[in-house]
Amino acid sequence: MSELTLQAKELDAADALAPVRSRFLLDDVVYLDGNSLGALPAHVPDRIADVVRREWGELRIRSWQESGWWTAPERIGDRIAPLVGAAPGQVVVGDSTSVNVFKAVVAAARMAGEDRTEILVDAGTFPTDGYIAESAARLTGHTLRAVTPAEVPDALGPRTAAVLLNHVDYRTGRLHDLPSLTAAIHAAGALAVWDLCHSAGALPVGLDAHRVDLAVGCTYKYLNGGPGSPAFLYVRRELQPRFDSPLPGWNSHVEPFGMKPSYDPAPGAVRGRVGTPDILSMLSLEAALEVWEGVGIDAVRAKSLALTDFFLSCVAHHAGDRVESVTPAAHGERGSQVSLRCENAGDVMKRLIEAGVVGDFRPPDVLRFGFTPLYTSFAEAERAARVLGAVLG
Amino acid sequence: MSELTLQAKELDAADALAPVRSRFLLDDVVYLDGNSLGALPAHVPDRIADVVRREWGELRIRSWQESGWWTAPERIGDRIAPLVGAAPGQVVVGDSTSVNVFKAVVAAARMAGEDRTEILVDAGTFPTDGYIAESAARLTGHTLRAVTPAEVPDALGPRTAAVLLNHVDYRTGRLHDLPSLTAAIHAAGALAVWDLCHSAGALPVGLDAHRVDLAVGCTYKYLNGGPGSPAFLYVRRELQPRFDSPLPGWNSHVEPFGMKPSYDPAPGAVRGRVGTPDILSMLSLEAALEVWEGVGIDAVRAKSLALTDFFLSCVAHHAGDRVESVTPAAHGERGSQVSLRCENAGDVMKRLIEAGVVGDFRPPDVLRFGFTPLYTSFAEAERAARVLGAVLG
Question: Does the record carry Hydrolase as a key word (chains A, B) (predicted)?
C-alpha cells in the first residue's frame, strides 16, 4: 500500500462525516461531478413513489392542501435557509436559477432608485447570469457592465444600482470574498445579488450575517435535489416589502385563490413565487434535504478543504507537472471543487470517465472535479488522482 | 334503473374512448376536477421510479445525454404539438404557465414594432395572465387595457401591439372563438397570444391552421402531466427568428455548452427555453402523454360535448332550478367543463366531495365540473348530477 493510500485510509477512519455516505445510493464509480448533479439520496425513490402513487394518484387535487403541496416552496426554503445562514421566512424555492436571477436583478435595480442607472455583473460568471442580467438591464433601462470581482470595488459609484456576483466561479472553483465585496457594494449605496449555485451546501455563506440583499442558488448540485430540481431565491427580510417582482404570478398574490383582477403581493418570501410549483421535482428536493439531519455546514466545509487539499497532493504526486491547478491553493479562495488545466482536456475527461472517475470538462481546457463532503471519501480522492496520472500516461 | 342511468349505460357501451379509462389509476370517486389536476396515468409510477433509480441514481450526470434529458423540452413539445394543431418544431416545454405568458407577451410586444404601444388582455382571464401582462407592459413601456373577448374587435387599432386571450374561460367554461378573434387581431396588424390552459387536450385548437402567433398552455390539467408539470410555449415557425426572449437563459443559446459570454439564441422552438429543465416533472409529463396513443383530439372533443350535454340534462332532471348553468349551451361556445351557479356554492362543493363527487369551487358562487373524455364515463356524469341533486336537498 502506497503512502497516499495509507493516508487516505487514516483520513477516512477519522472522518466524522463518513457515515453520511450511506445515506446515498452509490457504486464503485468515483463520482466527482456532484457540483453538476448531486448523487441520489437513498430514501428519495420511496418518497417520490409515495408522492406519485398516493398523493397524486389517490388524493389527487386534495393534496394541494392535505399533502402540503401548496406551501412547499416556502417550507423547503426554510429548510435550505440554515445551510446558507438565513433565518426563516427569507428563502423560497421554485423556477430555474436563470428565472430567479431575473427576479433578483430586476427587483434589485428597482429598489436602488432611479438615480442609479448601472448594473455590474461578474465578467467570469456562468454565462446564463450574464445573459439574464443583460435582459434585466435592457427591460429596466439600466446599463450593464461586466467586471471581474476584483475590479468591483473600483467600478462601484453613485450610479451603481446592483451588482450580480458568483460566490464560487463555476470554472476555476475560486471562492470570492462575499463579506468584503458585499460591504463595498453597500458602502457605495448599491445592492448585492449573489449567485450561490456553487456554494450552497458546500460551505458557509452567512447571508444574514453579511447583510446580503438578494441571492439565488441551485439545488441539484451540493443539495442533491435531483435533475433540474427548482432553484431558490433569498430576499433579505427588511427588503421584502419593497421586493417588486417582474414575474408577479398568482402564487405570489396575498390571496391566491381570491382570483382578484388586481395584483396585491403577499408579504414575506412568498412574494418571490410565480406560478404553480413543479411538485415532483420540488418534493424530491425536500426529501433529499433530509440527508442533512445532524450535519452542520461547518463540518462540511472542513471536510471539503481537507478533501481538496488531499486531492491536490495526490495530483501533484501522480500527475506532476502534466496538469496545472487553476483553483486557488489558499483556503479562503477555494470552493469545493478542483479545476485542473491540461492538454486535450476533453479527451482526458472521456478516458477518466471510462476508467470510472467522473468529473466534467469545461472548454477550452479545464477538468473539473467536484467534492461533495457528504459522500466523497479520501480514498476516492486518491483513486481519482491515481487514475488521472495513469490516463495522462 | 332510471331512464338516465339506462341512457348512461348505453352511451358508455357505445363510447369508443371507454377503453382508454383503463390507462389511468382511478377509484370509486367521480373525479370531475381533471381541469385542475389530471388523474394519474397507470404507467407513470414505474416510469418515474426508473428515472429516479436508474437514470438519476445510476447514470447520474451521463443521463443528460444518454437518457435524453437535455432534449426533453423540445421532444415533449413535439409530442404535444399534434394535440394543439401544430407542426413539429414550434412547441417547447418548460417553466410555469405564468413564466411562459411573460415570455410570450414581451416577445409579441417587441415583434409588433415601436409604433404599437398598447397590449389588450382578456378582462375575465385567469388572474395570473393579467398580473403578468401588466408586468410585461410595464417593462416594455406599453399600456395595458382589459377588455372582454367580445369587445376585442372594437378595441383593436393601429396602436395595438398584442392581444392575450384565453381559449376557454376558467370560470364559466366558455369557449372563445379563436379563429375569428385571431383573424380580427391580424387584420389590425397585431399579434395574437392565446392561453390554452383549459383547451389543450380537451378540444382541437388548430394553432397552425388559424395562424396563431404565440400560445401557452398548461400540462397538468387535460394533459395529465402531474402536479405542477411544466407548461408549454408555441411560437409560430415564421416568427421564431424574431422571437426575442426576455428570459434568455443558457438553455436557449445556440451553443449552450460553449459557455460563451455573449448571447446568441438558438433557432427554432429551443429559443423559448430558459434554464435547466425540471426533469422529474417533465418526464412524468412525457410518460403521461402515452395515454394519447391511438386517440385523436376530434374523438375527444365529440365525447366531451356528449358528456357535458348529458351532464346538463341530468342536472336539469336532478337539480332543476336550484342551479343555473353559466356555461354556454351552444357547442361552439363550450369548453370541456360545466360551471353551475348556486347558493352557498362553497359549502355545496364540500358536501359533494364528502359524497364522492370531486369538482371545485371558484368564488363567489361557481361549482366547476371538468370532463376529461379520456377517463370520465357517462355513468359518472349521471351519478354526479344525482348526488348534486341530493346535496341540494
Answer: yes
